[in-house]
Amino acid sequence: MADPILELEGLTKVYSGGLKALDSVDLNIRKGEIFALLGPNGAGKTTLIGAVCGLVRPTSGTMRAFGHDLAKDWRKARRRIGLVPQELATDMFEPVEHAIAYSRGLFGLPPDKARLEEVLRSLSLWDKRKEQIRALSGGMKRRVLIAKALAHEPDLLFLDEPTAGVDVELRKDMWRQIDAMRARGVTIILTTHYIEEAEEMADRVGIINKGHLLMVDEKDAMMKRLGRTEAHITLAKPMSEIPAIIARFPVELEREGTALCYRGGDGTGKGKAEVAELTKTLTTAGIDYVAIDTHESSLEDIFVSLLGKQEAAV
Questions:
Q1: What is the pLDDT of residues 3-50, one digit of tens each?
Q2: Where do you find CATH 3.40.50.300 in the chain?
Q3: What does the alpha-carbon distance between residue 182 and residue 145 come to, in Å, rounded to a whole number?
Q4: What is the architecture, at CATH level 2, of domain 4-224?
Q5: Alpha carbons 45 and 71: distance in angstroms, whole number
Q6: What pTM was estimated for this model as a whole?
Q7: What is the dotted CATH code of the domain comprising 228-296?
């Protein structure tokens, strides 16, 4: 396994009012991966990104990026880091191409018309390059944010809710661009409320809530370990208790005995096979049913379940 390009250890941030936005977070990011950081509003996602990007001063902990201690040698590391924030913070009267060229200059890089054109074309902004940012649609403004972050050719790119407020077509186009960045070797850390995007794109997933990093794992391994199958079987006649012949299955009666609910399996497909076996057993026993609805856990189901368990433990 390659050495991490970003290492966070014991990262903590306590604001003056006493709010602990980050609570001893440990996290390593690998070169070339897409890492999705998931959490509800106020979980600490933006604070973590702000700490790495120099926008938030941590209360304690260490941060290393590309081998540099961010507290001591911040400038060398920061020029290799790009950030696409949630909010557009730029001169709205500035032409698109000027805003992006200026972002490149902020990092001490010389003008590069070829690079500027490459970035603009890749994000479908070339035809808008002379327009003032204020004249663009919300989706195009979001593309300008990404272009500004890419202008200095970062090796590590933070995307904080990159597709918030963007229509479906633009979301798909942006994800194609993000996939292309990964193919060029850019490491990407993103936060998103669209968990299905993380499920589709991310290599690894971290779940954070109330400043605590609850879990970090390979997406596929997380789905396999925590995924479940749920099946609701509507019975032809109500039951007062579960018959002995199906008691070996993880089932319970619901809806006043008119339905059986199966919850079991894992992310390997075991649950589907067990549901099939359950229905065969019902048929053999002469227990009729009129409908069956089967659902496989998504990353969102796992996310909601973990948050629920944390809330219950508080």
A1: 799 999 999 999 998 899 999 999 999 999 999 998 888 889 999 999
A2: 4-224
A3: 18
A4: 3-Layer(aba) Sandwich (3.40)
A5: 20
A6: 0.78
A7: 3.30.70
